[in-house]
C-alpha cells in the first residue's frame, strides 16, 4: 500500500499489521512529504477509551483541528505508549502547529518503535531541519533514502538539507540522483547550480543554465547567477548580456538595479554600473544607497556632471550627513564650480564640528584652503 502522497488525506479500511491488530483506517497526512498511520479500529480494543480517543484524534486531524488532535493522541499514548503509529500521528499534528521540537520527539520515538519505516525517518528529517538541526536531519533523511532509495521526495529532502548546511559536494550527489529521475526538477536544478557556483565549478554550472533559463524566462535573479558564472569563465560579453537582461526584467526594482550595479563595479565596468545606479535612483528617489553609489561610481570615472546630480540629491535626502556635502563639493570642484564647492564644504565642516569629528573638520578645511589658493 502506498502511504505517501502530497497534499492529501487517505483513509484505508481493514488493514492488518504485523502486531496482529486490525485497523479500520490508515490515515496518511501530507503536504510536507510526511505520512503516518492513525489507529481507528473496526474491531474493539480491549480498552474502549483508547478507541474513542483515536477516533476523536483522527476526526480532528481530518478537520485540521491540530491542537485538539494533539490532545487526543497524547491521551491515547498514556494508554498505548509503544505504538509507533500514534507517535507518528502526534508528530504530524505538532508539525502542522509549527511545534517542530516536540514533533521531533514524537517522530524519534516512532522511528525507535519502527526502525524500518522510511516515512517516519523522512518526517523526522523534516522536523529536525525545521528546528535548525541540519546535521541530525541529514542522518534521518539518509536513513529514509536507504530504506526507499527510489523515493524522489526523500532524495530531494536530503539534498536540500545538505545544501542548507553548506555541504555542497554531498548536496550535488543527492540532487543528481533527483535529476536522474526528474531532469526538469526546478529546485534540484537551481540548488545544483548554486552548489556548483559555491564550489567555484563554473564550467559545470554553465551546463545547467540552458534548461533553467528556458524554464524561467522572466527570472532576473537567475540571469545574475548566469552573469557571475560567465564572468568566472572569462566570457565578459556574455556576462554583460545576462546582466543587461536582468536589468531589463527588473526596470522597476531599485534593489535589483543596485545589485547589478555592484557586480558591474566589481568587474570595473563603471559606465554600466553608473547606468544601473542611475536607474535605481530614478525608480526610488528616496534611496540614499542608490544616490551614494551613483555618485561614487561617477567620481571614479571623473563623470562630474552625474556625480553632481547624485550628490546634490543625497544632500537633500541626508541634510545632516557631512560626507554627502563633502563629496558634493568635490564633484562641484571637478567642474571648477569653486564658489558652490566652498559653500558645500562650509556645510560639511559645520556638520563635522557638530559631531565632534575633528578629523573630518581638518580634511574639509584642507580642501577649502586648496580651493581658495587655487
Mean pLDDT: 87
User: What is the first-to-last residue Cα distance?
Assistant: 90 Å
Biggest sheet: strand arrangement: 1-4
Task: Find the count of extended strands (DSSP E, 2+ residues).
Answer: 4
Question: What is the string of helix and strand elements?
Answer: EEEEHHHHHHHHHHHHHHHHHHH
CATH-defined superfamily of the domain at 1-131: Tetratricopeptide repeat domain
What's the quaternary structure here? single chain
Which segments are poorly predicted (pLDDT under 50) over 5 or more consecutive residues? 1-44
What's the CATH architecture of the domain at 1-131?
Alpha Horseshoe
The computed structural class is mainly alpha
Major sheet characteristics: 2 strands, antiparallel
Strand content: under 5%
* Broad shape: elongated
What tags apply to this protein structure?
4 strands, mainly alpha, disordered N terminus, two-stranded antiparallel ribbon, about 375 residues, elongated, Serine Threonine Protein Phosphatase 5, Tetratricopeptide repeat
Give a topology summary.
Blueprint: E1 9-10, E2 15-16, E3 22-23, E4 28-29, H1 48-62, H2 66-79, H3 84-96, H4 100-113, H5 118-130, H6 134-147, H7 152-164, H8 168-181, H9 186-198, H10 202-215, H11 220-232, H12 236-249, H13 254-266, H14 270-283, H15 288-300, H16 304-317, H17 322-334, H18 338-355, H19 358-373
Antiparallel strand pairs: 1-4, 2-3
Helix pairs in contact: 1-2, 2-3, 3-4, 4-5, 5-6, 5-7, 6-7, 7-8, 8-9, 9-10, 10-11, 11-12, 12-13, 13-14, 14-15, 15-16, 16-17, 17-18, 18-19
Amino acid at each position: 500500500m502506498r502511504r505517501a502522497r502530497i497534499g492529501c488525506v487517505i483513509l484505508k479500511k481493514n488493514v492488518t499489521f504485523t502486531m496482529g491488530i486490525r485497523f479500520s483506517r490508515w490515515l496518511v497526512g501530507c503536504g510536507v512529504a510526511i505520512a503516518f498511520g492513525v489507529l481507528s479500529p473496526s474491531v474493539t480494543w480491549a480498552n474502549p477509551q483508547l478507541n474513542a480517543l483515536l477516533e476523536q484524534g483522527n476526526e480532528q486531524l481530518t478537520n485540521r483541528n491540530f491542537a485538539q488532535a494533539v490532545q487526543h493522541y497524547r491521551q491515547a499514548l498514556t494508554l498505548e505508549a509503544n505504538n509507533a503509529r500514534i507517535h507518528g500521528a502526534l508528530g504530524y499534528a505538532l508539525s502542522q502547529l509549527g511545534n517542530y521540537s516536540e514533533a521531533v520527539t514524537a517522530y524519534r520515538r516512532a522511528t525507535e518503535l519502527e526502525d524500518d519505516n522510511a516515512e517516519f525517518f523522512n518526517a523526522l528529517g523534516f522536523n529536525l531541519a525545521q528546528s535548525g538541526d541540519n546535521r541530525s536531519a541529514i542522518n534521518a533523511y539518509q536513513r529514509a533514502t536507504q530504506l526507499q532509495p527510489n523515493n524522489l521526495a526523500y532524495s530531494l529532502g536530503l539534498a536540500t538539507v545538505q545544501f542548507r548546511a553548506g555541504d555542497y559536494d554531498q548536496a550535488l550527489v543527492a540532487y543528481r540522483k533527483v535529476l536522474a529521475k526528474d531532469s526538469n526538477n526546478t529546485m534540484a536544478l537551481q540548488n545544483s547550480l548554486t552548489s556548483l557556483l559555491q564550489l567555484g565549478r563554473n564550467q559545470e554550472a554553465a551546463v545547467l543554465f540552458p534548461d533553467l533559463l528556458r524554464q524561467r524566462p522572466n527570472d532576473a535573479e537567475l540571469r545574475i547567477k548566469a552573469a557571475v558564472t560567465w564572468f568566472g569563465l572569462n566570457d565578459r560579453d556574455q556576462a554583460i548580456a545576462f546582466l543587461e537582461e536582468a536589468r531589463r526584467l527588473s526596470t522597476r526594482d531599485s534593489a535589483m538595479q543596485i545589485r547589478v550595479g555592484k557586480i558591474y563595479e566589481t568587474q570595473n565596468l563603471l559606465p554600466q554600473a553608473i547606468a544601473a545606479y542611475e536607474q535605481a535612483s530614478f525608480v526610488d528617489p528616496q534611496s540614499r544607497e542608490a544616490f551614494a553609489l551613483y555618485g561614487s561610481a561617477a567620481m571614479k570615472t571623473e563623470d562630474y556632471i552625474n556625480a553632481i546630480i547624485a550628490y546634490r540629491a543625497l544632500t537633500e535626502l541626508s541634510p545632516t550627513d557631512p560626507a554627502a556635502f563633502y563629496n558634493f563639493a568635490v564633484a562641484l570642484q571637478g567642474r571648477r564650480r569653486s564658489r558652490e564647492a566652498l559653500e558645500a564644504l562650509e556645510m560639511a565642516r559645520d556638520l563635522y564640528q557638530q559631531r565632534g569629528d575633528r578629523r573630518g573638520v581638518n580634511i574639509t578645511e584642507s580642501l577649502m584652503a586648496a580651493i581658495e589658493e587655487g
